[in-house]
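R.M. (postdoc): so does anyone remember the format we settled on? I'll just put the structure tokens first.
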């Protein structure tokens, strides 16, 4: 009785992201299971400015009125730069009592009103003016700037395609080394990840991000957005 040749090969390429590591399915005769990472880098098309509106006063009404004034100043800054205030999004709104913790009865000594605002800009040339004017208007306790893609679907597809090319090349190399031919794809799994560059926020009262009319980001290019993908694939051996 002729012996049957069973060839099961396993290639494990560890992803830089621990959660991208997938366990191989149960070994199947005459198949190769491989895993590989791929990536796609592209320039961002969206700048995200985030800041807080925060006010504190002895009464909740006074704190609310101060926050309302800051919100109106924000709307004026946006309009002055040709930006519709409706494009800015509010994350949350909170009114919190402030206590005198040195007092055994923890007496309320004031109230703080806080809300967060996020603004997406397609025109990067407006970043310096907007952040500068918000600071000049005493709006916000912090500002942060990050760059991203408005839609990552195309970038994810290209990262997946790159990962698949790599995983197939690895499987082909092993198949050729064993004297076999790589056949059709019989199984695959995909994970994708986006790396967004975030600039650290300015703590305390929002400091101007532009001095003498020149923003700190002037003439610099925003860092590319990197989308990575991990593909696991099983191929039939001929």
């Amino acid at each position: 009785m002729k012996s049957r040749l069973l060839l099961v090969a396993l290639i494990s390429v560890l992803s830089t992201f621990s959660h991208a590591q997938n366990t191989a399915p149960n070994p199947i005769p005459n198949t190769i299971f491989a895993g590989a990472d791929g990536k796609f880098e592209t320039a961002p098309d969206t700048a995200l400015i985030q800041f807080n509106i925060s006010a504190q006063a002895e009464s909740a009404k006074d704190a609310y009125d101060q926050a309302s004034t800051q919100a109106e100043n924000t709307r004026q800054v946006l309009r002055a730069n040709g930006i519709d205030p409706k494009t800015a999004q509010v994350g949350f709104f909170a009114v919190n009592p402030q206590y005198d913790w040195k007092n055994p009865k923890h007496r309320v000594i004031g109230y703080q009103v806080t809300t967060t605002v996020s603004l997406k800009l397609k025109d990067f040339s407006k970043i310096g003016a907007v952040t500068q004017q918000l600071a000049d208007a005493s709006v916000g306790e912090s500002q942060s700037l990050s760059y991203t893609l408005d839609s990552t679907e195309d970038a994810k597809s290209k990262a997946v395609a790159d990962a698949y090319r790599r995983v197939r090349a690895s499987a082909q190399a092993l198949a050729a080394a064993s004297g076999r031919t790589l056949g059709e794809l019989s199984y695959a799994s995909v994970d994708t990840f986006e790396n967004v560059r975030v600039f650290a926020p300015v703590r305390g009262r929002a400091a101007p991000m532009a001095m003498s009319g020149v923003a700190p980001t002037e003439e610099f290019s925003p860092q590319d957005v990197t989308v990575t993908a991990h593909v696991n694939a099983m191929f039939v051996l001929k």
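R.M.: ...and that's the designed sequence above, right after the tokens. Also worth knowing: The chain has two domains: 8-43+152-195+228-237, 46-148. The two ends are 22 Å apart (CA to CA).
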